[in-house]
Design a protein that fits this description.
With 247 residues, this protein is of the alpha/beta class. The protein has one domain (2-16, 31-245). Helix content is 50%, strand content 12%. Strands 1, 2, 3, 4, 5, 6 and 7 form a 7-stranded mixed sheet that branches. The chain is globular. The termini are far apart.
Length: 247
């Protein structure tokens, strides 16, 4: 049993390294070779959760960091309208509405009846309630200990390294995921529990990982990077510009 676990951890580490190498190569080839304002593939932005006001209803999670043209960002809608999970989580944590009275709870039960399994592999009401208890625990931990990055949660040193070997994914990608629209809009993609809890607790800054930047926004980043001294001071406060100027 021990050797199986070790082999799995080694396999996960290899997968993570491969993903990192592929990510670095992809960003360098498809973004940084064209723009002066570089995109750092493992850089996290720290943003106010309440500045993430819109989101996209995505069928699958993001995999690659991109600069993308088109009108995809115009499809983003208000988070409270887009996602019943967000509405339910916020009302549960802020107003104390019991899980069984939330829109999330009833909609998931309906989908379980139709599809057999839904919402983090819940296949019945008991499993759903068990998962929601984990969400309550996450809320309690963040309230008690503060918001921590995925890397901080795993710890430093040898113990942290061993824990990281259990994950085949790039840790930064496991944070709240966003895209950035043409005018700098922060567009929610994934990580609804952490975003909702941060919103409810009024946390001022949380780490987010950016997958897609609109071409117009990336061009503006280039402009700011080249002409930062001539730009209005208020523009420097966008989290995707601050570290360019303060490099």
């Amino acid at each position: 049993m021990g050797s199986i676990l070790v082999n799995r951890m080694i396999a996960n580490t290899i997968k993570q390294i491969r993903k990192k190498v592929h990510l670095v190569y992809s960003v360098q080839k498809n973004i940084n070779s064209y723009y002066k304002a570089k995109v750092h593939p493992f850089h996290l932005l720290w943003v106010n959760p309440k500045d993430i006001k819109v989101g996209l209803g995505l069928k699958s999670p993001r995999r690659l960091v991109e600069v993308r043209d088109g009108d995809w960002d115009l499809e983003a809608v208000d988070l409270f309208e887009l996602d019943p999970r967000f509405r339910s989580l916020v009302t549960h944590f802020i107003e104390g509405v019991p899980w069984k009275e939330t829109e999330l709870y009833h909609s998931v039960l309906q989908l379980i009846k139709i599809k057999g399994t839904h919402y983090h592999k819940s296949s019945n009401e008991d499993e759903l309630l068990k998962y929601l208890k984990k969400v309550d625990k996450l809320y309690s931990d963040i309230k008690k200990y503060g918001y921590q990055t995925q890397r901080e949660l795993l710890g430093n040193g040898l113990r942290g390294f061993v824990r990281r070997m259990k994950y085949p994914d790039v840790l930064e990608m496991l944070e709240i995921n966003i895209d950035i629209g043409r005018n700098g809009e922060l567009i929610f993609v994934d990580g609804i529990h952490r975003l909702s809890i941060s919103y409810a607790l009024n946390i001022k800054k949380v780490p987010v990982y950016v997958f897609i930047r609109h071409t117009r926004w990336q061009e503006y980043r280039d402009y700011v990077y080249a002409n930062s001294k001539n730009n209005p001071e208020k523009l420097h406060h966008h989290p995707d510009l601050e570290y360019l100027i303060n490099k």
